[in-house]
Amino acid sequence: MRRALAIAAVAILPLAHVTAASATEPDDRQQAFAAAAEEFQVPESVLLGVSYLESRWDAHAGTPSNNAGFGPMHLTDAASYTGSNHHGQDEEDPRGDDSRPAVPAAEAPGPAEIPAALRTLERAAELTGESRERLRADPAANIRGGAALLADYQKSIGAPLSDDPGQWYGAVAKYSGAEQQEAARFFADEVFATIKSGEERVTDDGHRVRLSPVPNLGKVVAWLEKLGLRAPRRDGVECPSTVSCEWIPAGYAELPGGGYGNHDLANRPSSQKIDYIVIHDMEGYFGPSVGLVRNPAYRASWQYSLRSSDGHIAQHIKAKDVAWQAGNWYINAKSIGLEHEGFLAEGHTWYTEAMYRTSAKLVRYLALRHGVPLDRAHIIGHDNVPGTLPTTVRGMHEDPGPFWDWAHYFKLLGAPLHPFGGPRSGAVMIRPDFQNNKPYFYGCDRQNPEAACPPLPAHTVWLRTEPREDAPLVKDIGKHPTGESLYSVYDHSARASTGQRYAVADRQGDWTAIWYLGQKAWFHNPASAPTAVPSMGLVVTPRPGLATVPVYGRAYPEEAAYPEGVPYQAVTPLQYTFSAGEKYTLAGTAATEYYRAVTFDPANHQVVRGKTKYLQIQFGHRIMFVKADDVRVTFSG
To answer: Chain-wide mean pLDDT for the chain?
Structure first.
């Protein structure tokens, strides 16, 4: 499969068996932090704060996190740092515009030198005497390594090993591995904000850890001038002032043969409103991916790249212009795309708290600026974007995947996913307890793609044909024209995700059925540990007299709307329909538009608007559209 062939920036080493702790070693996560803080003379609050921003204190079962980082302290152990096989280079054309010919793929950049920030585990081994295997696999050893690094950084900038947390700002900034002053400052500021407010949670392996608030930190001594970091390069970027952000423009040039790349100039929102923000993962690494988007011959582009180690943001395309990012031209023309460093199959281990926080700050800023609703119908994953035609459905992407914590993300957005309605409401919002929801998947191991994934927190629930655990998964005829849905981490054919709203089709005991792709889909939803919450609201059903209703992947105008010289874009239904008696939740109206942009010169670009009214619905895992004349809108309380 294409993701298993992605060029890795690190060599994923065989997972070492976790060594049993000796009688002198703490076996409790909180005790491990306390012991390491005392041993290396680092304030415990600082050690806890840094670890929270890197991993939220999780151990990740010894698997690698971003840039081959391991354990609660995210110690990095990169064996190589090479190019990225970004997910734009496969069967999905990121433009999603069948009105123009395909663009050949550009070659990925070659290997690059390993940055020091990707080799911190090596230095931690020197400082502690721990083996690399133990630093990767044993949480207590890993925390010792992180504490030793912080102390080493403190000494390197001439700062004292003080018990005053405020004296450790420079060491914390250096721990981020950032090359930019802004990025290091953001990371340190977020750590110290966490220290000030406090945090408490249960880790992925069941340890309760608490960082008690330190409300009176006193004066924080920055020491940033000792780090020798690059000065900020904001250059008019469209980012909130509270994040680290720089302008690295995407390539835009005419190409041999009359083509051009790698995005389209526009005048949004004056020409057309921005309705969506699309969350991607890179299936690659920050540096090589940024290198790709700068190449006009590369057939994909996006507005923003986010680095996972420190949350640093690079903007490549202005919000007014259209990136080739989502594989659906209608969505591209009405959205902004954010690419997050990481790999879908390596799960929540890639998605650091630092990256979640900068991403949420950026998305909230963009949503408020452009009037995008803060809900899961408009803040969507690439995996929620529909295919444009029946022939493109199968190749659409699945990122950011089941390990992206949507509930936590929306809390950071300031729009937590609350229930709305009573226990017998006619609609539900999927919302399992992310930390304790660990469904079965296979396909996380690149070297052994058929092996089961380790039990990892996930935002998704499996959907079955009957209300029992051994029932088959429901089918997606677009994703699998023949054959069955898979338990692969890459196959969302039979999955519903946190924040998505569905109409209830039935209930039996601990099971709830929703309408999904024209069928009843059952998921386990016990009252003692619910995986969905009430969410009443508007739903659509076929209008009287219609047996079935077609659904669409884009809301294109009717033929009469096209002026002379602009070819008609066929309004083609997808392979799905839904029948009388079925209901699907309504997200609102969808603008009937087609953005004609097939030339390098934007003077020839044009927005075509029609009179046909479309509605956006949650039809399966992806959003889709129906014609308003085909359905009746009712309230489901």
So the answer is: 89
Burial of residue 438, with CB atoms counted within 10 A of its CB: 0-12 exposed, 13-18 middle, 19 or more buried = middle
What average pLDDT does this structure show over 173-188? 91
369-384 pLDDT per residue, tens:
999 999 999 999 999 9
What is the distance between the alpha carbons of residues 175 and 50, in angstroms, rounded to a whole number? 8
Residue 503 near residue 583 (C-beta atoms within 8 A): yes
Measure the CA–CA gap between 187 and 230, rounded to whole angstroms: 15
The pair of structure tokens assigned to 275 is: 């309705």
523-580 pLDDT, tens digit per residue, is: 999 999 999 999 999 999 999 999 999 999 999 999 999 999 999 999 999 999 999 9
Other C-beta atoms lying within 10 Å of the C-beta of residue 425: 20
Residue for token pair 């900020």? 232
In whole angstroms, what is the distance from residue 332 CA to residue 325 CA? 7
Q: Is the peptide bond before 400 cis (omega within 30 degrees of 0)?
A: yes
Q: What is the DSSP letter of 547?
A: S
Q: How far is CA 450 from CA 254, 255, 389, 438, 446, in A?
A: 43, 41, 31, 18, 9
Asked whether residue 336 carries a pLDDT value surpassing 50, the answer given is: yes
Please check whether residue 614 is in contact with residue 555, taking contact to mean a CB–CB distance below 8 angstroms: yes
The candidate with the shortest Cα–Cα distance to 624, out of 382, 336, 377, is 377
Tell which phi-psi region holds residue 41, choosing left (phi > 0), alpha (psi between -120 and 50) or beta: left
Per-residue pLDDT at 21: 35
Segment 486-507 shows an average pLDDT of: 98
Contact of 391 with 482, CB cutoff 8 Å: no
Which pTM value belongs to this model?
0.91
pLDDT digits (tens, 9 = 90+) for 243-276: 999 999 999 999 988 899 999 999 999 999 999 9
Type of residue found at 290: V
Long-range contact set of residues 112-117: C-beta below 8 Å, sequence gap at least 24 = 112/81, 112/82, 112/83, 112/287, 112/288, 113/81, 114/78, 114/80, 114/81, 115/81, 115/177, 116/177, 117/67, 117/76, 117/177, 117/178, 117/309
**Eight-class DSSP state of 229:** P
Confidence of residue 412 (pLDDT cuts 50, 70, 90): very high
Assess whether pLDDT exceeds 50 at residue 606. yes
Cα 132 to Cα 19, 121, 204, distances in angstroms: 12, 7, 22
Write out the two tokens for 623: 């959003």
| Cβ-based neighbours of 10, under 8 Å, separated by 6 or more | 64, 67, 68, 77, 78, 79, 80, 81, 118
- Which pLDDT belongs to residue 48? 98
Backbone angles phi, psi at 180, to 5 degrees: -105, 145
CA-to-CA distance for 13 and 18, rounded, in angstroms? Answer: 14
Pick the closest to residue 464 from 386, 551, 394, 524 (CA basis): 524
* DSSP single-letter state for residue 370: H
